[in-house]
Input
Amino acid sequence: MDRPVPNPKLTATLEQGLTHCIESTDFDLGALNKSTKQSGKVRDSYLLNDRERLLVTTDRISAFDRVLGTLPYKGQVLNQLSAWWFEHTKGIVPNHLIQVIDPNITLAHNCTPLPAEFVVRAYLTGVTDTSIWKHYERGARSFCGHTLPDGMRKNQPLAKPILTPSTKAGSTQEDGGGHDKSVSREEVLAQGLITPEDFDQAADYALKLFHAGQQWCVRQGLILVDTKYEFGKTPDGRIVVIDEIHTPDSSRYWFSNSYESQLAQGAEPESFDKEHVRKWLAGQGFTGDGPIPTIPDHVRTEASTRYIKACETIQGTPFIPNTDEPQARMQQALASLTVD
Ligand SMILES: Nc1ncnc2c1ncn2[C@@H]1O[C@H](COP(=O)(O)OP(=O)(O)OP(=O)(O)O)[C@@H](O)[C@H]1O
Ligand SMILES: [Mg+2]
Output
């Protein structure tokens, strides 16, 4: 996207926020915590009992499958935006949300995640070597079991949104280096890790969520280009959507008003995503391996501004950063939880 219009008040808030970003958490939940903390690249999670889990969305930013640093209020943006989408789509697809107990913390139904990511794509795009566009550019006309017509150009819409599941490849260089691998329904089922019934239920939910997301985005002047869903099974055996939905971390968004003209000029659509930080890193010669350069504060606040702009454009309401010292605030929110 274009450089966001500078807002001096927001910039000052973000600059102050640089010093108290949530990089990690280490809560003492006493009798409440049933396991050790689990840390993903962005979220820390704590199992409270067999049915409930706390998900703390930190301010960590990841790209190239690595944690690169922190951005002020990124965690609040993602946690609140996900909760907003969960609320807006709960009539269509059940989700894991029980309650948002702090701007950065969600109390969720504890689920067993299905071992595949449910990616839905509506456009022929992507930048990485494994993207649908790079496959197409190399001449492939089949992707995850879907046939693609000849003569398509980069960033054009597909005939209809398609499901392109992805599974974690192995941990060595030869078998994928632990990166995600796009596969067909049949390949997922052949691994024997998901039953056909569970897969088809999750696939149906993924396409329904995507359709709902697209419809909402049209009203907001946005295109929901592609996204990644995770599903889990509740203790009583229901499939629900977990983790996060339709956030700038899990989804690609383009601006509708400039899409056609950009495409006509052969230019990339305007978007808000992690490209800003990624481009800065690439400019430093970093493309995923070796030591991570320290990201300067102005790049961090600019990236935060983009996350906030994304949230505000999607929801259509202003984002209000919570400027309380976050560790004390979160600890206080947790104190209100009781053992059952
Ligand atoms: N309701 C839930 N029940 C159980 N696990 C969940 C639930 N919601 C999310 N998770 C898991 O919590 C983790 C969230 O962490 P995060 O989003 O940082 O992970 P990631 O970096 O995207 O992936 P990874 O965990 O592979 O590093 C994910 O592993 C996700 O599967
Ligand atoms: Mg995740």
